[in-house]
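Batch manifest line 292
LIGAND: zinc ion
JOB: complex structure
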Amino acid sequence: MDYLSPVALGFLGSLIAGLMTALGAIPVLMGKTPNRTLRDMSLGFAAGVMLSASFFSLIIPSLDAATERYGEGALPAALAAAGILLGMAAVALLNETLPHEHFRTGPEGPEAPSLRRVWLFIIAITIHNFPEGLSVGVNFGAHGLAEGMPLAIGIGLQNAPEGLAVAVALLGEGYGRRRAFGIAALTGLIEPVGGLIGAAIISVSEPFLPWGLAFAAGAMLYVISHEIIPETHRSGHQNKATLGFAIGLVLMLFLDVWHGQATAALAPPRRKVLDRKAKGLDHFTVVTPGIN
Ligand SMILES: [Zn+2]
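JOB STATUS: finished
ARTIFACT:
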């Protein structure tokens, strides 16, 4: 697949990751509704993958890219911090300003508080799928197929429980199976939009790379803390949710490090850099983000 341009890769990769949202919602379409415990656990898993991905696939690469550009010192950390805070603020602002009213039910629908909460959750899931796509696109755009892959896999994995959670929540508010599934699938389709934009921007302008990566991480961190973890703790399943969280976290860690080493074996010139990174010896290793 190396003949694909970075932009095409970014789009396709994030599209496939986004479609995992629909895949996760399929049980609802088939009339199977998993119980609340399983949902809280799988959503906890999603939060774990997202947290791990924020650091290993976004923040550390952002620091690497900034260090390569501006040298060591406080600047890379300051830049990453600013990018993270900007990403968090952007989602917070979107959460505040989006016209939620438009998403309430039709004329006969009562404005139940639970319905409003469900839609706020869905909006948050949808919003954060944009920076998720962005980060997959940025990764493919900057580092190519092999190095972009772990993040794409991780994002795809955590999309499945998110899709399931959205569909099940809608089912609980009286939506039909097909509509619940359709809306869940739609929330994932924002991802390739982000992927396309991310890959395009990075291919055109490399200085955006550290910013884009940190921004995407910040947006994801906001949703983890503000929506996903509270959602998994609402029904008294904190222990199971935290177990899911731990599994997601270490799975993404494994995916990132192990895949990084496999990639290094295929591309000898980078081996040293990635080996050091994998051993945690140097988080500020300079990785050359060669275009293509
Ligand atoms: Zn997510």
